[in-house]
Amino acid sequence: MAATLKDIADRLGVSPQAVSLALHKPEGTGRVSAELRERALAVAHELGYQPNRLARALVRGRSHFVGLLMLAPLEHPYAEAVRGVDEEAAASGYAVLLCNAHGRKTAHEQLQTFVSNQVEGIIAVASSNVGLSDEVLARKPEGVPLVSINREIRAPNVYSILMDNRSAVRQATEHLIGLGHRRIAYFDQTPSSVTRPLQSSVERREGYLAAMHAAGLTPLVASLPSQPFELRVAESARIAHHLLTRPEPPTAFCAVTDWEVIGALRACQALGLIVPRDVALFGFDDREAGQWTAPALSTVRPAFHEAGRLAVRRLLDWEDGSDAGVVRLDCQLVFRGSAPPGTHEGRRRLAGVSPRLGPGYAVGGAMPRAGVRRSRGRRPQPERSLPCSASHPVVPGQVSP
Q: What pTM was estimated for this model as a whole?
């Protein structure tokens, strides 16, 4: 049984009220001596006493609870936001009340749990799917501030923290162009008949198109259905194998996530192509699986950890009547073996000379030293999507729905 104030009081031979003053009032206030305060703290530590946060909240009007509503899977990269929230909250003396509502149609009921526990603010982490997230967030308790991570919510008392997906993918594509690649294919994610497009997927595709159009190159977009990662890897491997056996195959792939370029890597291996000598690969999300491939994947690392910490700071600095706001965080370009930092290879490709293995490479995929570069945060002008063709999922210059 948990220790109470009365247990400490009985041990010290004083009243519970005196123990409460000694433990809960700041030093120098209250009618207790420094000697009694030290003794009460020592006994409380010995007995493992933990204060009742809710009871103290009723008295002080503050609970020191932050509600964290997960509308995304508790996996990478969204789990990084959870880690950031927990770290920043702990550093500020707050506890986090986590409710996992991913995949539940009753997610709005989780918000009532926050109300009953008198949270001082709510942080929602969404997979950026427009649908359940909007419905749930629209039912948030009135007057309770909310910070939305990865989904832009335009509503009073809501602050949105987003990833600059468009700029990150544009820079990743520009990096491949800088290496001399001119036929760069992109793996996109197509929503199913019962889901809507992911906001992040749309922005990433726009970043790829912007870079290709700016360089005067023809886009090549392959759309894959939204499905479990193992099926996406298999399907992207099949499509990449088809593209790589065409008369003018792509010499580079980038994708909406790491899973698709892992599939492309499998296709390269099956065809005896060497990465990055023959084909370069650039993913998104910096998943752990991409660090264990041979070679390891170059990728974009979204700033979910930073977003989690920023969300807590934003709640603690919240002012009543704050207008809705939006901030976009720069992502990081992580260079590994599949598309390393620029070398003279780009010049050789532009000159029409077959690239050779440069220093630090070996047949079989030994990777060079990895590097990280922060996204510059540039925002391209709005790009007009190209016509869709549902019957031809892989067509130069066309984008599948």
A: 0.69
Cis peptide before 276 (omega within 30 of 0): yes
Q: Residues 399, 385, 259, CA angle at the centre, nearest 5°? A: 50
Helix ranges (H only) for 4-157 are 5-12, 16-24, 34-47, 53-60, 78-91, 107-116, 132-137
Integer Cα distance of 288 and 365 in angstroms: 17
Cβ contact 335:294 at 8 Å: no
DSSP-derived 3-state class of residue 40: helix
- Scored b (16 or more CB within 10 A) or e, 257-283 reads bbbbbbbbbbbbeeeebbbbbebbbbb
Q: Which positions ≥6 away from 171 have C-beta within 8 Å?
A: 207, 211, 333, 375, 376, 378
Return the DSSP state at 215. T
pLDDT digits (tens, 9 = 90+) for 130-179: 555 566 666 666 778 889 899 888 777 788 999 999 999 999 999 999 99
Query: ∠208-211-217 over CA atoms, to 5°?
Result: 100
Locus of tokens 């925002």: 379
